[in-house]
Amino acid sequence: MTDRAPKETGSTTARGESPVLDQAFDGDSLYPLRAAVAAHGSQAGLPEGRTRDLVLAVHELAANAVRHGAGQGRLRLWATPEGVRCEVSDDGAAGEPGAESAEAALWHVEPGHGLWLVRRISDGASVQSDPSGTVAAVSFRLGRPGRGAPPG
Length: 152
Description:
Helix content: 25-40%
CATH architecture: 2-Layer Sandwich
Number of helices: 4
Oligomer: single chain
CATH topology: Heat Shock Protein 90
Number of strands: 5
Order of helices and strands: EHHEEHHEE
Strand content: 25-35%
Number of domains: 1
Distance between the termini: 40 Å
Largest sheet: 5 strands, antiparallel
CATH class: Alpha Beta
Strand order of the largest sheet: 1-2-3-5-4
């Protein structure tokens, strides 16, 4: 996997923050990935239930990268005063360079329950794909779901 940065902002957020977690993964390393996400979500100030939602969302995106991509990916997680943002990226489907498997093509066109769930439990979600791979992003605000960050 190449060290591809998030498409819109490089390896930092718009405010110049570097990710607090930048971890490669494959099918054998999803458990440690979930543990790292849980630790960082909790440390960022997400309540326990929202931390579980964050872990579930990241796991679904990472599992999709493993299954529909080249079998591996990269997670980047940023903690900001407003909340947590994660990006899961992969380098596209295994096989010929730039070629996408029929199953991977279906994933992008007809998302299954995993992506539906991710969109339901996160405060923001997006998936961008091109021949070089996919970047899926989720955000979780501090405070109650669907609300802005608490005043402060």
